[in-house]
Amino acid sequence: MQGKNLPLRVATLLTGLLECLGFAGVLFGWASLVFVFKTEHYFEELCESQARLTGNVTEQADCKAQDERFSLIFTLASFMNNFMTFPTGYIFDRFKTTVARLIAIFLYTSATLTIAFTSADSALLLFLAMPMLTVGGILFLITNLQIGNLFGKHRSTIITLYNGAFDSSSAVFLIIKLLYEQGISLKASFIFISVCSAWHVGRTFLLMPRGHVPYPLPPNYSYGLCSEDGPREAEESNTESRKLELKSKEFVSPKEEIPGPGKQREPHSFWSYVFSWRFAWHLVWLSVIQLWHYLFIGTLNSLLTNLASGDRVLVSTYTNAFAITQFFGVLCAPWNGLLMDRLKQKYQEEARTTGSSASAAALRSAVPSLALTSLLCLGFAICASVPVLPLQYATFALQVISRSFLYGGNAAFLTLAFPSEHFGKLFGLVMALSAIVSLLQFPIFTLIKGPLQNDPFYVNVLLVLVTLLTLVHPFLVYRECRRKESSPEVA
Fold first, then answer.
1. Any transmembrane segments, and where (predicted)?
2. Which of 41, 181, 292, 303 could form an SS bridge with 120, CB 3.0 to 4.6 Å?
3. pTM of this structure
4. What does the pLDDT look like over 433-466, one tens digit per residue?
5. Are 63 and 46 spatial neighbours (Cβ–Cβ below 8 Å)?
6. Both ends of the chain: CA-CA distance in Å?
7. What is the mean pLDDT of residues 384-396?
8. Distances (CA, A) of 339 to 252, 281, 386
């Protein structure tokens, strides 16, 4: 059965990768799209009124009100990208794959059609379209992450690969910008993206499960084209999967599998995991690093305009360079997953020989990933804080590597640190709570543009210091793993 289903599983993997790469995270190519919107005179009336009030014609080249409007749209859309992950994660857990994907397709298609038929006169519709686009995209990602369960030991690698593809999809807006410069209208590009929804529908019914992909995978599991019956088979697969999970030694050592005399394994509720220190520090880790990335992406056009002294050709060149580097996220992210998979196998082999906790050994494999992501963000933050235009090439490279490690590592850590039955809810909740922190990007942008008079030095120094806090998370996880490995009965 494994060999018989292999072509279908590979097709699911590759088409899912293409879906994440072409559609899921396009919002984060915002800087490229803003360049097109400004060329199309979106919100330009704010610049005109400001120029009249100040009597300064050059003010229009660096219009604070226009930049703030675009920053507000991105803030709202990026907030919805994370905040809506919790309800969409619940929808995915409760109503399963097909329903979740149909909702995603509806939101995504509605958004792309709205953008296609938006003009400078109706630019306010972007406040509706961009959040819908990003919520549809995150649902595509959530429903595709479960594909990692089809490939066993390579699960973390595939999860990080998909998150990398999510990051790289921001290059789609660069392609739209380049096509626009060659004479293809914004309307035509977004209508084409809307038509691609037919492909999403076909993939939903032919190459995706109706329910969830269980983990560990039952030997007779079938789905999509190979599945001839519905809920009953899915329920049988889930039941068998739960039996396998009790026997699985990937996460549980022999000492932990069989409770001692008079002891009964006590199931933990969802909220007990939510209020654990492990979840709290992971939230801090994700929120701080993500705030840096959102603030940088949302204000990049304004930053480049200032550093290039308003030279549009130079701004366009650096915008293209940034968008091109984003494409390499799909190549960077799997290295994080490979690192975690290799370390997990190594630590669990050691756990089997020593009889220590295999679950702690698996969790320990996430520590280097968490620490490396924090260090990459620290380097990116320092480079972004130096107001030298050529140095931004290094900033772009560090930013894309850090971001591809961030989201892949986040999803992989949650699969290792918490039970799989709570993954959708915990993934959604951590993203939703981090979204609230990400709202700080707009007041920070307003503070820089206003009282600080376009000088972000003090804000950047403060954020760099806060970034050092993220190193606490991998240290505490490492300390807990060492304690459990030496005393598995405490686990």
1. 12-37, 70-92, 99-117, 123-147, 279-297, 317-340, 361-388, 400-419, 426-445, 457-478
2. 41
3. 0.75
4. 998 998 998 899 888 888 887 788 888 899 999 9
5. yes
6. 37
7. 92
8. 21, 22, 31
